[in-house]
Amino acid sequence: MRTLHAAILAVLIILCVPNQAHAVSSKVRKLSKQTGVSVELLEELKAIRYFHRDVYQRRAFIKDLSTKNKKELLPLVVFIGLTEKKDEAIRRSCIRMYSHFGLLVDKKEIRSLVLPAIKKALSNKRRPQDQRWGFEELVRLSKWFQMDEEITEMLLPLFQGKDFNLRALSFKALCSVRHKLISEKIILPACQTVYGSTKGYSLFDRFRAVDELTRRDVTLIGPQLRDAMAAGKDPKMQVKSMYVFCDWKDPSTLSLAQKIDKTAVHKLRRGAFRLRIALGDKSTLNTVVAMLPKGHIDLICSNLEDLGDLGGEKSKKLCLKLYDGDLYPAERVTQWRRRKMEKTIVEEQRKLKVAASLSLLRMGEKRGEKYLQNVIK
After folding, report:
1. 185, 256: one domain
2. Which of 160, 276, 371, 377 could form an SS bridge with 281, CB 3.0 to 4.6 Å?
3. Is 170 helix (H, G, I), strand (E, B) or coil?
């Protein structure tokens, strides 16, 4: 009886194995028809793992797929990026591989295959992460294939739409456009719109607009930044303006930077001091000396480092004295000892010595080089 049962079981196994193999190959053949990828290439990749119930097997297939540099696999990646619904990680991974395989094909295939897929991903508001990565892939492919016209036509409606996140992402992508005519007619007005708006765009978008306007056409943003710096109504944009003027080295902004006193926030004072250094203001040395008794130690150290860019014998003498510890104010010693915080005195002296060493290095003085090496170790 046992022998009969064993024989029946063996026959069932033999009959079922071919049917299972046939079912597996049918799935691969169907995937081949849907994507246009050859059955041989899919079998080489062991594409049957994509249909496995185990999520780790499916993700292992996607991982192996990302290591292949074959342009024939682009339709497969696009297909999975569009149709995958069970596992978000697999779908997003395939979206991020658009440029990986897209760089291996021609511009015609990008237009016919990848751009429609990205457009569909951008239109799905329920998948914001897919939209973000779709934007990144679009910008990357546009830079490689010079598709400024295509991405402008695709992104301009999103930039003009009502969705806050899509507006921000599309503006970031539009800033990658380099076509002169498109830049003059669309990108520059868009940057001016973002910079001039206090609602509907984030502060990071406004900062990006400033960077793009300064890089493309300084004359469009210079007077506005100077007015923003003088008005002082928007401290964050005021700080941004100061760092922009550091690159321009506009002498007309020196008086505005000198008006920033100790009542301002630290970031604003830091930007104003940096601007004064860039314009060669010799009075910055007196500013550092005046800050030593009661100023914030981190702000003092930052300004002290910038004195290295100013140079001069007086700056070098000041840094040498601070490096030796001769100018540490008695007021600070009394203040910390009264609070029984002697360790703070040692820590502040160390910070001043490091800042003085960095400043001396900028001036070509190597006295503090060994000390800095020991600090790094």
Report:
1. no
2. 276
3. helix
